[in-house]
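Homework help board

Subject: predicted structure for assignment chain

Our instructor gave us this sequence and asked us to write out the predicted structure in token form, then describe one feature. I got the tokens but I'm not sure how to describe them. Can anyone check?
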Amino acid sequence: MITVRRITEQTDLLIADLCDLLIDAVHSGASVGFLAPLAQSTAEAYWQQVFASLSGNHILWVAESEGKVIGSVQLAASPKENGRHRAEIQKLFVHTARRGRGIASKLMQTAEDFAHANDRLLLVLDTQTGSDAEAIYQHLGWQKAGEIPLYAASPDGRLHATSYFYKILRQYLQSPPTT
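My token output:
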């Protein structure tokens, strides 16, 4: 049984599981902002930063099975006045031993449902061009907006392109301005 829950506060066990998840992602080649080998202290510092930023504008969910974190995703709502209708999906992780079981889909659906319920009309994200993640997002109905070459280094240090995606959660209907 896999459950997804929103995280609002830090625990030592949660930090340990999330560090394992991040290290697994980086060491399996995911381009998520870190180079391999990823030190435990670097992973801990990252998650401490995430917990410090959790608020109404930054949400973290984890997928759990048998009391262990096996996946996570973050949603960062735009704090800008002209961007209150959008949010960014960040750091979708599923442990390599648990991939292919619909966990990423479940995490993404949770984030999309939350965004929709909180009046976010547009979601955006970026991922390594040609990665397994890119195929997952396309499968989930995300639209590719384009690519930027040489955008980031993969964990082994090689530069690669990133692909930007978007998903419109509902149509925004607005009357044209009257004169």
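Reply (TA_rk): Your tokens look well-formed. For the description, you could write something like this. The CA atoms of residues 87 and 123 lie 5 Å apart. That's the kind of observation they're looking for.
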